[in-house]
Amino acid sequence: MSMYYLFSDDTIRQESRVCVDFERATSLIIERARQLVNQLVEDRGHDKPPFLSEEFAPLQGIKKIVKADLGELGAVLLRFHDGYVIKANQNHNLARQNFSCAHEIGHNLLRELKIELNTEDIEFRTFNPQAPGRIVAKARERLCDVAATELLMPETVFKKYLSGFGVSVHSIERLASTFKVSIQSAAIRIAEVSTEPCITLLWQPQPRTKSKMLRLAWRVGPGREAKGKANYMPVHAHVRYPSKLHTAYEYDSPVKSFKLFKVDNAVKRLPMESKGFGRGENRRVISLAYSER
Under a CB-based contact definition with an 8 Å cutoff, are residues 288 and 190 in contact? Predict the structure, then answer.
């Protein structure tokens, strides 16, 4: 079994009385999620994945998770006189439903912690600085994603399976299947917890040019030491046809290549593995670049 160091209840209560910055809030929500994971592990007697939202829900006083047509919404947390209910979008796949419900459980954890965010410490480059209320709302959504990630892919457990599978694009599907999460979620988690520094990148077709050009949709920095910030940025965020990335997009076999990355004031040529996932409009290429290979 994997157990974590936890803040005591008194520490959590003390922290809840003060306004905290985003980094501190992230630390608190992760610790609270780990506490919930530990409770589940103790109750079921093992730490084998998957970790499902429906297992965590009763531990948070959530009566049930029901499926409904929610349009564009992934899930919603509803409060009734006798407890909470989560509604999940029945039109989404099970992995997405699992994460959406865990995100709603994250809202419940935030409510317990009573965290007040200091907007001056939230990076404005990712939010609209003209709308402080919107900044806090988006920051809270991000914190709920952090909580969902820790609930469904606990760091210690995920590291153990990643070590067994190996840090490679070959492992992404296996990890996603094992933990019942999306391909993208598993790929991001690899970069967050891997002991070998790596960068996860998602490439998708340029809307107007379809598969003739791929553009970088998002990137993840090397490991938890980066504190959620991407320290590595590709020199070129667009890739024209033909290229190794387009080969990965058009076929299902992984390809190896090298790409230039900006690292502080220097440019480094890093080895990279890429593989295409999904079909049709959902087709994407996920790359893992390695800064120390």
Answer: yes
User: For residues 209 and 241, is the Cβ–Cβ distance under 8 A?
Assistant: no
Which alpha helices (H) appear in the chain, and where do they start and end?
9-15, 22-44, 53-56, 94-113, 132-152, 155-165, 170-179, 183-193, 244-250
Q: CA-to-CA distance for 203 and 10, rounded, in angstroms?
A: 45
Domains in the chain and their CATH numbers? 9-152 (1.10.10.2910), 157-290 (3.30.450.130)
Single-letter amino acid, residue 214: L
Dihedral sign for Cα atoms in the order 129, 133, 139, 142: negative
Contacts of 63 (CB under 8 A, 6+ apart): 57, 80, 82, 83, 84, 85
Per residue in 146-157, pLDDT tens? 999 999 999 999
Tokens at 180, concatenated: 């019942």
Length of the chain: 293
pLDDT in tens, 148-197: 999 999 999 999 999 999 999 999 999 999 999 999 999 999 999 999 98
* Alpha-carbon distances of 258 from 234, 235, 272, 273, rounded to whole Å: 11, 12, 5, 8
What are the structure tokens assigned to 196, written together? 């070998």
DSSP structure class, residue 224: G
Please give the structure tokens belonging to residue 46: 């093992």
Q: How far apart are CA 73 and CA 37, in angstroms?
A: 26
Question: pTM value?
Answer: 0.85
Of 251, 181, 241, nearest to 213 by C-alpha is 241
